[in-house]
């Protein structure tokens, strides 16, 4: 079940997202926006990954790390890192639904989200940038294929870990959809992009991902920034 907030909340006025519509990391924030019913309150500005615009000086002034997405809030502050952006968005009305409402929930959700980052999403990212053509020679100035393939194997081990987790519970951090699920969804989106198949024996993970793909927030993550998109 998706918990929606009123789209007219004044605290979201003036939000800008700098991202690339099909990117797996931007997907995390786009899914969070949709789950929180905030997508109609956000202006999207596209930063072309394939042209390396995220590594140019004007963008680096917004985000030192040169990564997407970045959120600009009404006072002009730029917030990078998907977890930080999701935390900000989820706390806007004081009733978080994605990052945990109790100390226990917050701890477990953040733990599992970090594991999904380290063991799957970031590992696939390293594989993409080092052991495949990545974003092309103009962007990939250094590559270490051996390291990339090691990270590919790490991602596969991570998939087995989360398969074991999802054999015992419905969602990554327990019995409710959370930021941890969104992070792992980002990893699975990246796996699809690099054609890294989920191991056949990871049936619980595959079933979970199939369920996640049925959520409107996941289905509509790319189209939400298109002109005339319905909130």
Task: Briefly characterize the structure.
The protein has 231 residues and is an alpha+beta fold. Helix content is 46%, strand content 7%. The chain has a four-stranded mixed β-sheet with strand order 2-1-3-4, covered by helices on one side.
- Separate helix tally: 8
Helix and strand run: EHEHEEHHHHHH
Helix content: 40-55%
* Largest sheet strand order: 2-1-3-4
Rg over CA atoms: 17 Å
- CA(first)-CA(last) distance: 18 Å
- Quote the average pLDDT: 93
What is the structural class? alpha+beta
Return residue spans where pLDDT drops below 50 for at least 5 consecutive residues.
Answer: 1-10
Largest sheet: 4 strands, mixed
User: Can you tell me the overall shape?
Assistant: globular
State the total count of DSSP E strands: 4
Description:
The protein is of the alpha+beta class. It is built from 8 helices and 4 strands, in the order βαβαββαααααα. The protein has helices at residues 24-35, 57-60, 82-90, 103-131, 145-166, 179-193, 203-213, 216-219, and strands spanning 15-19, 42-46, 70-72, 78-80. The protein has a 4-stranded mixed β-sheet, with helices on one face. A hairpin with a 5-residue loop joins strand 3 (70-72) and strand 4 (78-80). Helix 4 (103-131) packs antiparallel against helix 5 and helix 5 (145-166) packs across helix 7. Residues 1-10 have low confidence and may be disordered.
List the helices and strands and how they pair.
Elements: E1 15-19, H1 24-35, E2 42-46, H2 57-60, E3 70-72, E4 78-80, H3 82-90, H4 103-131, H5 145-166, H6 179-193, H7 203-213, H8 216-219
Parallel strand pairs: 1-2
Antiparallel strand pairs: 1-3, 3-4
Helix pairs in contact: 1-3, 1-6, 4-5, 4-6, 5-7
